Every structure is written in structure tokens, then in C-alpha cells.
Amino acid sequence: MSSSVDPSAEDYRREMCTYNQFMEPIYRQALAHLPFQGSVGGLDAGCGPGGLLPSLCHLIGDEGEIMALDASLAHLEAAQQLCEHKELTSRVTLKQADLRTTLPFADDRFDWVWVADVLHPGYFPTPDDPVSEFVRVTRPGGHVVIFFEKMYESKLFPGQPHLDTLYRRYLDYHGRKLTFDNQPNNLHIWLKRSGCEAVQIHAFTMIHASPLTSEVRYYLQDIVVGWFAKTPMDKVTAAGISEDEWNALLQAVAPESPDCVFDHPDYYCMWIALMAIGRKPT
Ligand SMILES: C[S@@+](CC[C@H](N)C(=O)[O-])C[C@H]1O[C@@H](n2cnc3c(N)ncnc32)[C@H](O)[C@@H]1O
């Protein structure tokens, strides 16, 4: 397994906490499908700053414990603070590990493995490798669950076809290097190829509508728009978008603009996530 990126060097805990708040309506739906209730021990692989640990602890019940792994020490530090704040330190063990290597656990150790928004193709060009490791450390009859937000299929400008088409073109260009094997829409296939049975795939949607809460507004404005607004013009034109079209798109989301879409009383965005659940054969 290899990647040019060293995830331990990255610290985006503030963005992750806002992202977790933004995604809350989808997490509620996703968690309701998890077969984790009453389990003794699970693994949160790529736990980040730990935003989902309180919900996972609540879901499994008072007896359950969670091992939470991440490569980033900064994220683990934030997760530690969160666990202290939520009085979960006796139930959660945090550990630094690289998911691109063999996991430091015996075969069949956990009842379940949960991995949310981690197996991005840029970090994991061959997701079958970590997924096989997740299956190895899960007990027979236990479950491996892969969750992915699908920003590329989500809608930032529903009802505004011109902006939506431009944004879609930008996202399509951005995702052009994905292959069948590492495309996150195929997360259920990763589980099947790694030997799981009874694989199910679920889709979840949510809408954030005007008036947006300050967290949602911050996520859309500073993180989503902040991400694409930084794109150099040569990459924008390579995506088939002219400079004028791009400026119109940026103007529509500029916070100081009187026409900023996020301030419109009828604005809404629609987000999508996918989740696949597989069972390790007994
Ligand atoms: C987008 S965050 C998701 C965090 C968390 N699962 C959540 O949903 O809130 C991705 C996390 O994966 C971690 N990560 C990325 N590559 C990794 C690797 N090779 N080994 C361990 N963790 C990794 C990052 O440090 C980051 O915390």
C-alpha cells in the first residue's frame, strides 16, 4: 500500500468538527442501520477528531468499548479532549496507526469496524488492501461498515440550473481520475472482494434549508466554497468553464454579495451519503 501523502502531517480538526455538525441529520439515519447494539468491542478506523465516537458509544450500549485509530496526532489529541469532555475515556482507546499498513491487532479481534470518510482514492489508491485488513480483524459474523459522504453527487445550487451545471462540470473534472476499483460509489464491491457476505448498500439524503444555522453556513461558505474558490484558473478552464462563468459562480456564493445564494430565503442544499455493510462469514 502506498501514497505520496503523509496523513499524520495533516491537521484539519476544525473543518472536521464543522463537517460532523453539518452531517448530523445523515449520521442519525446511518447509525440507525448499524448492527452494533450490545457489541463488546469495535474499531473506528480513521476516527479523526472523534466526532462520531459519542454516538457510536451510545449506540453500542454501556458495556461496549471502542478502539479508535488515526494517523494524525493532532486529530487524536482532539479526540482525547472530546472523550474527556464526554466522560468516555474508560470506553475509548485512542491509538496512532497507519491504515495503509497491517493493523496492529490479532485476527477476529473486533465485533465491528466502522470507517467513515477515510478511504479516499488520493490516500488509498487500492482500497481493497485496508478493507481486507478490516475484515481480518473482525470476528466471524461481525460487520465491516464503510460510510462516505458523496459531495460530488450532492447539490449546492438546486433550482438554479445554470450554477448547478457549472458546479457539476467542475466536480466531474475533479473526479475524472477515479477508477472503477477506487471509486467510492463502489464501496460495496470493496467489501465483497474482501470476502464479506450479505453486503447491503444504503443511501441517505438530507436538506439544509434557509435560514441556515451558523454552523451550516460556515461549512458551506468557508469549507465547501473555500475549497473550490481556491482553484487556479487553468484548472477551471481545463474543466470546460470560462473565466466569466467561473466569476459568476464565485459571485453567487460571495458572502459580501447582496445576491449570495446562501442568504436567499428559499435557498436549500441537498447532500447525499452512501454506506455499505458487510458480514464476515462464520
Ligand atoms: C475526513 S476524516 C474522517 C474522520 C472521521 N472518520 C469522521 O467521519 O469524523 C479522515 C481521517 O482519516 C485519517 N487518515 C487518512 N489517511 C490515514 C491513514 N493512512 N491511516 C490512518 N488514518 C488516516 C485522517 O487523519 C483523518 O482523521
Level of helix content? 25-40%
Radius of gyration: 20 Å
CATH architecture term of one domain: 3-Layer(aba) Sandwich
What's the story with the biggest beta sheet? Answer: 7 strands, mixed
Could you list the spans in which at least 5 consecutive residues all have pLDDT below 50? 1-5
Ligand species = S-adenosylmethionine
Side-by-side strand order of the widest sheet: 3-2-1-4-5-7-6
Provide the succession of SSEs: HHEHEHEEHEHHEHHHE
**What is the average per-residue confidence, as pLDDT, rounded to a whole number?**
92
Structural class by helix and strand composition? alpha/beta
List keywords for this structure.
10 helices; alpha/beta; disordered N terminus; binds S-adenosylmethionine; globular; single chain; Rossmann fold; seven-stranded mixed beta sheet; 282 residues
Describe the structure.
With 282 residues, this protein is an alpha/beta fold. The protein has a domain of 182 residues: Rossmann fold. Helix content is 37%, strand content 21%. α1 packs across α8. The site of S-adenosylmethionine has 20 residues, from α1.
Furnish the topology, listing elements before pairings.
Layout: H1 13-22, H2 24-31, E1 41-45, H3 53-60, E2 65-70, H4 73-85, E3 92-96, E4 110-116, H5 128-137, E5 138-149, H6 161-174, H7 187-193, E6 197-209, H8 214-229, H9 233-238, H10 243-253, E7 268-279
Parallel strand pairs: 1-2, 1-4, 2-3, 4-5
Antiparallel strand pairs: 5-7, 6-7
Helix pairs in contact: 1-8
The structure holds S-adenosylmethionine.
